[in-house]
Amino acid sequence: MLKTRRWMAAVFGLWLGIQPTLFGLWAQGEVAFIARWDFLVGGSLRSLVVEDFNGDQILDVAVAGLDPTSVSLLRGLGDGTFPAARHVPVGDDCCNEITSGDFNGDRIPDLAVSHLVAHRVSVLIGWGNGTFQVGEPMTVGNGPLALVAGDLNGDSFVDLAVTNWGFPIASNAVSLLWGAGDGTFQVASRLTVGLRPAGILLADFNGDALPDLAVANSADGRVSILLGQGEGRFEAVGPLLVGVGPRGLAVGDFNDDKVLDLAVANNGSDTVSIGLGRGDGTFQAAPAMAVARGAVGGGGRRFRRGYGNGFSRGQRDGRCGVGPAGGRRRDVSDGPGDAGGL
Ligand SMILES: [Ca+2]
Ligand SMILES: [Ca+2]
Ligand SMILES: [Ca+2]
Ligand SMILES: [Ca+2]
User: Fold this and answer.
1) Of 257, 255, 261, which is closest to residue 240 (Cα–Cα)?
2) pLDDT tens-digit readout, 255-286
3) Which residues neighbour ligand 1 (ion) by CB within 5 Å?
4) For residue 31, what are the contacts with CB-CB under 8 A and spacing of at least 6?
């Protein structure tokens, strides 16, 4: 049962584009889902993260895309429900994707969001009560999209890596932003990857305790693997060939060999590709799995349409099955546009 949960957690998280916190708990047997509730939140939901933003030990949700100028916050009540969203104004062209991390070392989760058209990234420092201080946006590469947070250069401060999807001209780079430990960042170097990099994921694929990156290149059907060399340097190894329009990424040990594997949502072919890790940072491609049309779609479609078609069982050899999911619907209205937090 637990192995099945691991499978479902990884793919479900990938499918929804959700950071793994809640689904990780589920995978560990700490959370049991009995029924499905669909939340109608309006807007064009693009990306979300799950953290306890107001310190009440209950997971909340921060969403990019519900409001064109704000990050939206859904406060968890602990019973699986979320009251109306409240909004934190960030500025125009807000926001394409969102990630979380503790950027100033106060053990309170902070947020970073991308502004694709403005070529910028904004950081929101959490106060611990569900409100945030919004910093000056930083100009990064061409058309930033997905972000990931972690200590990429080994100085113990949380850094950011941002895919430059490219707007309006396609790009093939990932921008690295070194954290100073106080909530500020310095735009550092760029890494060359494939065309139109969209999704990005941070993990240690080769077990050397140095962070590695996987980048889904949406225009060339490949996932770039960049192995960390220490001090913020990365070296590319052979890319993983996947389906059409790879977008979302998830990591986990899907075949129970103690080596991390990759799952890749292919937006253009409605498939999920699995790369089985060899332990040296390279991956063996497993046959892609077809899923329902739109189930791995990018942007807002991931959440609104994805609930109807889920993965229902896992297999230990790197394959998985697909089945329908059932449940009931629950509406959540979009909240007032004031500047409050949770
Ligand atoms: Ca913090
Ligand atoms: Ca760092
Ligand atoms: Ca590594
Ligand atoms: Ca494995």
Assistant:
1) 261
2) 999 999 999 999 999 999 999 999 999 999 98
3) 102, 104, 106, 108, 110
4) 22, 25
How does residue 38 score in pLDDT terms, banded at 50, 70 and 90?
A: low
Pull the structure tokens for residue 254: 């899907």
Both tokens of residue 238?
A: 């052979």
State the distance from the centre of ligand 3 to the C-alpha of 56, rounded, in angstroms: 34
pLDDT band at 298 (very low <50, low <70, confident <90, very high): very low
Give the closest residue to 142 by CA, choosing from 180, 101, 184, 193. Answer: 193
Strand order in the sheet with 70-74: 47-51, 60-67, 70-74, 86-89
Closest CA to 109 of 87, 82, 132: 132
Q: How far is ligand 4, taken at its centre, from the CA of residue 285, in Å?
A: 12
Residues measured by CB to lie within 5 Å of ligand 3, the ion: 204, 206, 208, 210, 212, 228
pLDDT at site 34: 52
Of residues 141, 104, 142, 105, the one with CA closest to residue 123? 104
Among 315, 271, 331, CA closest to 14: 271
Nearest ligand to the C-alpha atom of residue 257: 4
Give the span between the Cα atoms of 242 and 264, in whole angstroms.
7
CA distance 27 to 8: 8
Among 276, 278, 291, CA closest to 321: 291
DSSP SS3 for 6: helix
- The candidate with the shortest Cα–Cα distance to 64, out of 302, 263, 332, 265, is 302
**Helical segments of 17-107, H only:** 21-27
Amino acid found at 262? L
Q: Tell me: pLDDT of 334 over 70.
A: no
